[in-house]
Specification:
heterodimer, A: 264 residues, Rossmann fold, four-stranded antiparallel sheet, 8 helices, 12 strands, B: 401 residues, alpha/beta, nine-stranded mixed sheet, 24% helix, 39% strand
Chain lengths: 264, 401
Amino acid sequence: MATLEIKDLHVEVEDKDKKSKKKILKGVNLSLKTGEIHAIMGPNGTGKSTLSETIMGNPRYHVTQGDILLNNESIVEMPVDERARKGLFLAMQYPAEVPGVTNAEFLRAAINACRPKDDPISVMTFLNELDKNLDLLDMNEAMTERYLNEGFSGGEKKRNEILQMLMIKPSFGILDEIDSGLDIDALRVVSRGVNAMRGDKFGALMITHYQRLLDYIVPDVVHVMMDGRVVKDGGPDLAKKLEQEGYAGLRDELGLDIKLVDEN
Amino acid sequence: MLTKENLLNFSHKNNESSWLTDLRIKSFERLEELDYPKMQRFSYQDWPLIKKEDFSWSNQADFSLKEEQKLLEKKGIILTDIFTASKKYPELVQSTLGSVIKHNEDKLTAYHYAYLNSGLFLYIPKDIILTEPITISLSPTQDTYISHLLIVADNNSKVKFLEEIQDKEKKASSASLMVELIARPGSHIEFSSLDELSQDTTLYFNRRAKIEKDAHVEWAIAFMNDCNTLGDLDSELVGEGSFADSKAIAVTTANQKVGINNRVTNRGPHSTGLINQRGVLLENSRLIFNGIGQIVHGAHGSKADQQNRVLMMSDEAHGDANPLLLIDENDVIAAHAASVGPVDKVQMNYLMSRGIPYDQAQRLVIRGFLGAVLDAIPNKDVRRKMIDILERKLIDGQIKH
């Protein structure tokens, strides 16, 4: 069993235009185990994406306090590639386009990065896995020879993120608004991919605005974030309740003094 | 000292036609007085591009063809070494050789025509459409290697030409490589080249296309040499509605110095000239990419667009990406973009977030940066080879993390 613990995490991000630093996370605590699916919900501007980028190690985000432990080992000082090789995966909200590198080549490079140098994945094993996962995600084989995300539609990019996750098989997948910009059919397909990974070797942290995603991927735990903190934990019903009452309702119920970004 | 006697002597030894001997002699006679071509902020006059003493040379074919030549002959296509062509097709060769790049432009062109000792002639007859690329491999024939490729695409013909230049077997102390492309009305030429000369040589190149009415020329040149390099890639849009897309990439390493002018001149109305240059600098190397887009008076309705970008992979390297737009006509569209900078951080973070180590991620991002030329090479094996050379250069020159 693998574990991922976030302890009292404080994070700042540099604002390039203003040349100042902005505090975004103000003490986040979370604990995940493989075999569990967690969902993080919360209003806009509350730090959900910052949390996922920070766990993965995007150098734009600076941890000022607290710790992130992967299997009881602190990873805050580790570069992003090392975190990935230790079993973390972030399905990004806006995946980068990398021309000149085909999807297939990229996938092999990523898989081999986790393996000993003298033991790369065999071509047959790789192709079999790839075929199986392409089928699962209703993806066309031709896309493997296309350049990484280049000219992909929003939906294709999201599927491609899940394809990578299926191929790389991380211990923890962080899914940052994997549902945004997807129509119902694409959402179903993407969810099928995530559900296929469910099991005792995989844990996920899903970030979403909407309860809709959680109908397809049913979480074990739901966390609600507001103003840089987790303010409430619960089961799947918590998400349903939020859908009815909104974030402002929960805030008032908890007696929190927070202004929501989109509140008039 | 270089002497006329020596030149005449070898021309006769090689049984050359009198017109070719004459071209050599009139070039030789201008050699002394002509200046070196100017390259802004780039000094190369001490390079051994011109021999100081007489030397022996002979006319030799410097290429091998990768496919069935007979298939080409059937269609009336001529593909032979330039000296055989000068005898078998004297009118065709005499009227075209030296018509795009003149012998008396500067010291280096005069030297080239006086001493040229290798080369190829390709003629595509009217209306012939070749779908498969013609692929050749070039290598130096002698210590002073002076090679001339003359390609004539007659009206409405279409050809893809790919050359690979390497000196694995024989090295030259200096190389002068010229290409003259003549794109007759309505023709279409895609010319790509993978240059990979070793550091033992010093390279001067001059590749120029004359593009007539509604003709279309695309260059895709990969400067993957290890040697000091100087030269011009040039498109003369003389015809109305003509089109040129001039793509070039260079990767420089060690103490290499490379200066490249990529010039497109719009002379015909409604002509389009595009320049896209990408350079990657490693270690102590120096690379200058001048993108020169000129629209002359009368070329109304024309378009010039250029991009010059260089990636600096070392603090010790010096790179310049200079866009120059010279416009002498009002009714035109012209644009340029230039940048000198580091590797794209967003792409790096994405690749690394999948476990790919920094150095490898950097090489992959750089490959994408050079993708425009890579994609234009019409042969999978040559593309693969280019990627391998790129990988090797980057691994050798990369700052380790």
